[in-house]
Design brief:
313 residues; mainly alpha; three-stranded mixed β-sheet; single chain
Amino acid sequence: MLATWAIAVEHGEQAFDGRRAEVEGELAQAVSRAEAAEAAHASQQAELAALRAQLEDGAGDALVAREETRGEREAKASALEKLDALTLRLAADADEAARRLDGLRDSYEQRLQQQREAHAAAEASFREELACATERLEGVQRHVIGAADGVAFGAGFSLLLLADIVLLSDRARLCMAFQRIGLLPDCGALFTLPRAVGLQRAKELIFSAREIGAAEAQGIGLALEVLSPDALLPRAMETARAFCGASEASTPLVKRPLDASFQSDLETMFRLRLQAKGWRWPVATWRRRLGALPPRSRRCSSGRRTGRCSASP
């Protein structure tokens, strides 16, 4: 019996020892698991704390963003209000500007119309005066000397053609510039230019509206002489003085047929000559002219030269 108990006790101790070892192993595993759980818990607590910190930071950022958003919203609303007010003001300003512009346009059109009418009246008056001056210059029964030193374009060229004698300086420039601006030559140039240079050359000068110099003008017969600028006026005065000895009364009788020679035939010229031949000086003029002659140039009624002549005119 004791042996049995001993065997049982021994077997029980062995079983207890095995069980204790198992329990101790399980305990160690449980302790390990508890330590791991505590470490995991601590890590989770740290993560939780970090998350709480992030959440607090996020909450602060969200609050700041909310405030910023509210400020932006208020600024946007204020900007929209200002934009609406500015739009209304711009619309009012545009209406006012349009009214002022219409008023200015009407005033400008009225002034422009007045200026156009005044310009048209002035141009018509000028053209009438120019035509009258051209007629007077063309019809003047005196020797007309034209001298040009510089530019003679358009009407200046045309008026120069009305002179009996034309003198130019070497720096003179002539041009029938009318075709450049779509106008017809005036001041009688359509009549005088072909008679000065010929029809073909006149067409070329008018159609091309080109500029010609003094040398070319002299070469085609527009000028009698070309001089230096300093010598131009003295030469013109010298030429004028050379004509002073001509008869004032007979000058128109000579000039008028000469001016009509290009459009007249020989019979007409003879008739004009006969008409002029029938003209007589007044007695006082005859005596004055005869008295101005040198003594050796006087003739008696018999036709021989003598120092004195008693023949009456």
